[in-house]
Amino acid sequence: MSTPTDPALAFPFLGGRPCLDFVATLGKRHATPVERIPDPAALARWITEAGLAAEDGPVPVAVRDLAEARALREAVYRVLRAAMAGREPDEADVALVNEVAARPDLAPQLGAPRWTARHPARAALATVARDAVLLVGGPLLERVKECGNPDCSLLFLDDSQARRRRWCSMERCGNLAKVAGYRSRNRAADTR
């Protein structure tokens, strides 16, 4: 499985939960969206890189699985955003997440492979949907935040001790904000 040549299409695994990492397969939601799973091969690559592959080698992904994955991703995103804002999520989104979560998910195994499943791609999506259900219905929801970079839309679980994390990661957006702040202060000082 090859990695994309465009760095924007690389999967950011910064969310701290499978469902948050899955939502990040659509990047820059507030600007020009970046679709990181444009085809079945990219979804198979995400499943493998996320550690949700039920077998060695490429995960078989059908076009139908891709369409379902994208629909699930957007429903999970909307449910999470509604829950984060203290609003009731759309019933259709809840129904879709619950439907996928009710399917057989990945079964953990001792030894290799780590998971087993009759339908690996569908089981990986069911695992993601269950993770979303557990996150939205559990105590960790209050720790889910959106990156403070206005060009970034990644959601992440704030696992910092003080619960004041602002960026999806310091290496990614935090450093960009620091550099921009530094340049802005220098420009302001130069104009005095």
Automatic annotation (TrEMBL):
Zinc finger CGNR domain: residues covered: 143-185
Among InterPro entries, the record links this protein to: ABATE, ABATE_dom_sf, Znf_CGNR
Q: Which Pfam families match?
A: ABATE, zf-CGNR
The record's SUPFAM superfamilies line, in alphabetical order, gives:
Jann2411-like
What is this protein's name? Answer: 4-hydroxybenzoyl-CoA reductase
Q: What species was this sequence derived from?
A: Streptomyces incarnatus
